[in-house]
Amino acid sequence: xxxxxxxxxxxxxxxxxxxxxxxxxxxxxxxxxxxxxxxxxxxxxxxxxxxxxxxxxxxxxxxxxxxxxxxxxxxxxxxxxxxxxxxxxxxxxxxxxxxxxxxxxxxxxxxxxxxxxxxxxxxxxxxxxxxxxxxxxxxxxxxxxxxxxxxxxxxxxxxxxxxxxxxxxxxxxxxxxxxxxxxxxxxxxxxxxxxxxxxxxxxxxxxxxxxxxxxxxxxxxxxxxxxxxxxxxxxxxxxxxxxxxxxxxxxxxxxxxxxxxxxxxxxxxxxxxxxxxxxxxxxxxxxxxxxxxxxxxxxxxxxxxxxxxxxxxxxxxxxxxxxxxxxxxxxxxxxxxxxxxxxxxxxxxxxxxxxxxxxxxxxxxxxxxxxxxxxxxxxxxxxxxxxxxxxxxxxxxxxxxxxxxxxxxxxxxxxxxxxxxxxxxxxxxxxxxxxxxxxxxxxxxxxxxxxxxxxxxxxxxxxxxxxxxxxxxxxxxxxxxxxxxxxxxxxxxxxxxxxxxxxxxxxxxxxx
Length: 512
Prior knowledge:
This protein is of the alpha+beta class. Helices cover 39% and strands 15% of the residues. Strands 7, 8, 9, 10, 11, 12 and 13 form a seven-stranded mixed sheet that branches. Strands 1-4 form a two-stranded parallel sheet. Helix 12 packs across helix 13. The longest helix is centred in the C-terminal third of the chain and has 26 residues. It is elongated, with a radius of gyration of 41 Å.
């Protein structure tokens, strides 16, 4: 009941008094008799949740979260609550935790489940490890360690923790090299692990062991290494600033900054409130430095920031039964009536070929030959073109170049007689929209003459006369569409359409 109330308040955006009154009405109906529905099921948002239940049985936690975010358009609902960047960042962090949980399960070879993720998330909350997202925006303050800030840049950078002591402790595990150079063939060689244990713990100060450790070579090496690391680390912090760099100090001196600026000497101050001298120069000019003393309490006044309204996209249209496919496929579209076929005209004698699959390759090679020589755009002789195509399609055992030249010449003569002398364009592209779908095709041949425009489809189909008739009927929708698009593009009417069966030399006119 509490979950339903939260959903109605936050997602369905009902007023609190509406939710309470609706709940009281439901309880009254329950006392009077069994109600016809569970509480909240009359609301669309709860109905959507119930519809998703059967789909989540085999899904992981991250998959369920993705399903809810997308199907319920939750991000749009969350944005309406305000503090947009932070809330959306928290959504991303929740997804990060879901994926992190599943990765942990994979490492442990255990099953990842929704219940397991909820328990895991509950443990994070109890241990106060359920961090929010960074919520970065131009008004945000980013709190980072010096290590984590590497590679970033901000208009204003405040370098904190400048009073920390040098980490030169020799206790614990150290990696000790025995040689000054590395052996690339033995990277782990000539090195060993050293463990020094402090037997006095917090009572180490003032012991003989302390004086001996302070005088040891190991302590000197550790101090030198720690100072070098401090320089590198502070350099990272200082160079994150684009415009302003702030050094806040407290009662304790900024000894870290002192050590870095004074070769390890903590006593010599790097910052002097009474001095106007700058620590650094840039292009031989002193950087401007402003110094001031301020006193601040532990509490700060809260400033209300005016939020900018984020960009709102139009709401989703919702589910529909079906959307039309973007590409118009004339082969599967129901066209008009079957086309009227003119009487077959024999343009040239059929190819004399054996009943082998290679016949299809011969038809393809001959089609390419016709397109190459029909528009007279090439200055190459026809015979070399035929020979190259026959060789490329590996059909020299079935046909000779002379056959292509003879039949091609007869076809061109027939086209001139039938269509009239004119310009021939091959592989002519057409594109247009048909009923909200895009139709794209490439016409084999387009003839533009004084008598009109003609479309010639070169068909490689292999079959007897009846099979060719059925093939033409199956091509009718595509031929009708290509004619319609061509006429629309060229602003024409009455374009004639012909079909040529390449291996049979048989041409027929098609009309709707």
